[in-house]
Automatic annotation (TrEMBL):
Coiled coil: none annotated. It is an enzyme of class 4 (lyase). This is cystathionine beta-synthase. It catalyses: L-homocysteine + L-serine = L,L-cystathionine + H2O.
Length: 385
């Protein structure tokens, strides 16, 4: 994290911590190091801050953004939009975000607070239809003077941002942490697990690690059931077109920035296990992560228990990094989170608390009981000395 004065909020993008998830590892019987790259600590609250900053700065250098005139238009699940709205608020560009209906109210509220215009689109609309968030963005770009779509789905600065920052930060954190008898380390990033939305994150991190650090690193992509990003394609057949609640990962098309050659294995996750993983990481590790972080963790746990991953799981010192892309801030009104927070079963302390409060009420009631006329209360016995 920066230890000096920053010129603006864009200086607070990235440089997020890599944190041990020891309790989760222990609960699952793993001997490896399970490490979470905690992206909600970035200035805008998610991993997407990185690509928003990179895309805006690259467009400025290329002369594609004109101060006082350009209107940035972006179709997004929300987090890229928030990163762009933050960057454009600082730099003085107008912003329009097209957002599918299923995305949270919190995302819309944050976008509007940052000065962005928000257009909601039907979640069920196919990506290439005029009604989709992509179709609406393209129409607005055609008709609004100086409108520009930076296009996270095709922009090379999406994976490049992760190759130059996220991946490098992961490598540096692992390499600079010494191996000790209590906390052994291979000194390498042995496995990375990340969810795929545009695919830029998993692609860029993979390139950083395999090109410069450990070409034998296993990169695992996580794709929600109902999406078609995983390969082989038959992984997607059973739940093809199914609706899923988790936000920010999965698509009904394969974005250009996702390079399947950079991903060694794929896992499909469902909403139930994703949200269970969110609860586990909150309760055991104190990290307030969002639903797609739960998907990544659920995928990591399943891979480490599989035939492909069990040797890693049973090897002290092996470093398994899970990308946790955002925090719970954007999902606090969602039914799945309210169920976790407000409808969980009684804790071990709840019975004790109830007994204490009931006993206090009983004592208070006895002290306030009226004395019947003509009846004298017994005096307390004298204290013994």
């Amino acid at each position: 994290m920066p230890s000096h004065i920053l010129d603006n909020a864009l200086g607070g993008v990235g440089n997020t911590p890599l944190i041990r998830l020891d309790k989760i590892a222990s609960a699952n019987g793993f001997k490896c190091n399970l490490l979470g790259k905690v992206e909600f600590m970035s200035a805008g609250g998610s991993v997407k801050d990185r690509i928003a900053k990179a895309m805006v700065e690259a467009a400025e250098k290329e002369g594609k953004l004109i101060a006082g005139k350009s209107v940035v238009i972006e179709p997004t699940s929300g987090n890229t939009g928030i990163g762009l709205a933050m960057a454009c608020a600082i730099k003085g560009y107008s912003v329009i975000i097209t957002l599918p209906d299923k995305m949270s109210l919190e995302k819309e509220a944050i976008l509007r607070a940052l000065g962005a215009e928000v257009i909601r689109t039907p979640t069920a609309a196919a990506w290439d239809s005029d009604e989709s968030h992509i179709g609406v963005a393209k129409r607005l770009q055609r008709e609004i003077p100086y409108g520009i779509i930076l296009d996270q789905y095709r922009n090379v600065n999406n994976p490049l941002a992760h190759e130059l920052t996220t991946g490098v930060e992961i490598i540096d954190a692992v390499v600079s942490t010494p191996s000790t008898p209590l906390k052994p380390s291979s000194g390498k990033v042995d496995v990375v697990v990340a969810g795929a939305g545009t695919g830029g994150t998993v692609t860029g991190i993979s390139r950083a690690i395999k090109k410069t650090h450990n070409k034998g690193c296993t990169v695992v992509g996580v794709d929600p059931k109902g999406s078609i990003l995983a390969i082989p394609a038959d992984l997607n057949v059973e739940d093809d077109g199914a609706q899923y609640v988790v936000e920010g990962i999965g698509y009904d098309f394969v974005p250009d920035v996702l390079d399947h050659d950079d991903v060694d294995a794929w896992l499909k996750t469902d909403d139930e296990e994703s949200f269970a993983a969110v609860q586990a990481i909150m309760r055991s590790e104190g990290l307030l992560v969002g639903g797609s972080s739960g998907s990544a963790l659920a995928g990591a746990l399943r891979w480490l228990k599989s035939d492909a991953g069990k040797d890693i799981a049973n090897s002290p010192g092996k470093n398994v990094v899970v990308l946790l892309p955002d925090g719970i801030r954007n999902y606090m009104s969602k039914p799945w989170f309210l169920k976790i927070a407000m409808e969980s079963g009684p804790t071990p302390l709840s019975g004790t608390i109830a007994q204490i409060l009931e006993r206090k009420e009983s004592v208070k009631g006895a002290e306030q009981s009226p004395t019947l006329p003509g009846v004298q209360t017994a005096s307390p016995p004298p204290a013994s000395h």
